[in-house]
Amino acid sequence: MTERAAIEGRLVDADARFALGARYGHFTAMQVRDRRVRGLDLHFERLEGASRELFGVGLDRAAVLGSIRAVLGDDLRDASVRVYVVESGRPHVLATAAPPRQAPSRPFRVTPVVYQRYLPHIKQAAGFQQAHIGRRARQEGFDEALLTTGDGLISEGSITNLGGFSGGRLVWPDAPMLRGITMRLLERLDVPQERRPLKVADLLELDQVFLSNSWGVMAVGSVDGVELRQDDKLMALLREHYDGIPGDPLD
């Protein structure tokens, strides 16, 4: 399929999509399966909170659903969908649809990069720095970059959250970050959980390190070429929990 775009329920051409998509604003990314989305209320909550912070106004949920439905049309049941709220005189809701993405089954290779996002709790529409960091990481043979502070504390990936297991506890970095929708769904897993400062060296001591984003959950196999521990049972626990979350209907 070719990428589609809709603004407040109206299909538009690619020029209009890029003209608005590059503006000041925020967005959320989701995987649509059989016209359902996991954590749809969390996506609305994200968009609502960011809209109030950036624009000082609430979010029209009907406009969001209208644009998603318009961009899916009558024929698409599975797709990667992004919903942007961007300013062009006033806030506009823009949705795009592209081919669906699935989390790769192979472990990811990651590398640390010193960079911290401004307003990290907001998923920002104009993400040049993160896009550049991710692109450079891939050019160097890695799958993802881990964003760290100057003294080495890990916050998140360029387009992912990072987590790990230690002695049966699910560990998240204690650092400013975007709490991704998949991360928030994994926080509902019925295991002990904690936040603590994590540096790259600490990853070597964890039983399993993983990444999460709208694609799903991915194991981390190495950091800067150093192999990490792998535990298939822990990855299966994460994936079974995530896969077992029912999607919310869009229609």
TrEMBL record:
Gene3D superfamilies: 3.30.470.10, D-amino Acid Aminotransferase, subunit A, domain 2. It comes from the Bacteria. One of its GO terms (molecular function) is transaminase activity. InterPro entries: Aminotrans_IV (IPR001544), Aminotransferase-like (IPR036038), BCAT-like_C (IPR043132), BCAT-like_N (IPR043131). Pfam families: Aminotran_4. Keywords: Aminotransferase, Transferase. This is Aminotransferase class IV. It comes from Nonomuraea marmarensis.
